[in-house]
Amino acid sequence: MEIAWFRHEDNWQDVKNAAMNTIGRNTGKYPDSVWKKKILLAEHSPIRLMHFSWRWKDLPYWVSVHIVRHKVGIEHFVSTQRSDRTGISRDELPQGSLVAHECQADAQALINISRKRLCSGASPETRAAWQLVKDKVAECEPELASCMVRECVYRGFCPEMHSCGYVNTEEYAREVRLYREAE
């Protein structure tokens, strides 16, 4: 599995302008890294103006199903397995069949999905697929990538019924410190 392509255009000025409007101020100057991290941690509505698009190539169908469960702030376009389109009986295709899965998502969706898909409770294959997205985000929006964390880091504790124990490690404490860095 790999990311065939990834797109994002810097529109932080739009985010800043919208944020300034909500508090009755005029347009602000282009935001610095600290401001970006603060608005992302606060998850204020203007972050939904940031959009990202990508396509996974050769994603196992069952991993695609995990990702397509997410609905808010994201759209999915998955290659079909319809028999009338592929010429192959869908009943003969295994769950591991490879698909192309394209997404368009806003920054809030990336934060939300990361909470579930980077968790140790998610399948390793699904975590790996989502980590590919996070790595691409980190290349262009490092502040956002730093807010794309698993649920336990986001909440400060593990809410799962069966914890993996990560919350009891030094790595967890370090990750929480990094996540909260701009507070």
Task: Characterize the structure shown.
The protein has 183 residues and is an alpha+beta fold. Helix content is 45%, strand content 17%. It has 9 helices and 4 strands, in the order E-H-H-E-H-E-H-E-H-H-H-H-H. It is globular and about 60 Å long. 25% of the residues are buried.
**Rg to the nearest angstrom?**
18 Å
Major sheet attributes: 4 strands, antiparallel
Poorly predicted runs? none
Q: From the structure provided, what is the oligomeric state, counting identical versus distinct chains?
A: single chain
By DSSP, the count of extended strands is 4
**Arithmetic mean of pLDDT:** 93
What is the strand content? 15-25%
Tally the structural domains.
1
Helical region count? Answer: 9
Distance between the termini: 36 Å
Structural class: alpha+beta
Keywords:
alpha+beta, 45% helix, globular, 4-stranded antiparallel β-sheet, single chain, 183 residues, 4 strands
Write the topology of this structure.
Blueprint: E1 2-8, H1 12-22, H2 33-42, E2 51-60, H3 61-68, E3 74-78, H4 83-86, E4 98-106, H5 107-117, H6 124-140, H7 142-147, H8 151-155, H9 170-179
Antiparallel strand pairs: 1-2, 2-4, 3-4
Helix pairs in contact: 3-6
